[in-house]
Amino acid sequence: MEEIEEVFAKIITPEKKSNNRPSILIVEDDKDTQSRMKIFLEKQGYEITLAEDGIDAFLNLGGKSFDLILTDINMPHLDGLKLLEMKKQKGIEIPVIFLTARTDLEAEKRGLDLGAADYIKKPIKEDLLLNRVKKVLENARGNPASFGVN
What we know:
The chain has 150 residues and is α/β, with parallel strands linked by helices. It has a single domain, classed as Response regulator (Rossmann fold, 3-Layer(aba) Sandwich). 43% of the residues lie in helices and 16% in strands.
């Protein structure tokens, strides 16, 4: 746990985005899922950054500005629930959508209680993912016309 706190201590002010494309951080330890989501969302006009776990996600949060985080729950080193909890403690206000194969309602309830904007069960359907991403971004910014190309 000390390593995680050290990572937080090193987080610097993220750089501002140089384009108007919404930026999404995908936190997923499964390479196939990661790759499929990246390709699909980039085709929809989103800028995508990949992270393999919660620690890698926080390193990315320190160096870049994001509009949305898509994160798995079950990951090595720092799971998605802990990532959301620590993001909230640090006052990082980026909406989060959970992606998980877990079927227990307790994890879903805990995630939503911690402030997750939405919760998508795997396997992920592309049309559902796009719909939820657009909706969360619209709610976060209040401007539906500025998100994605479709």
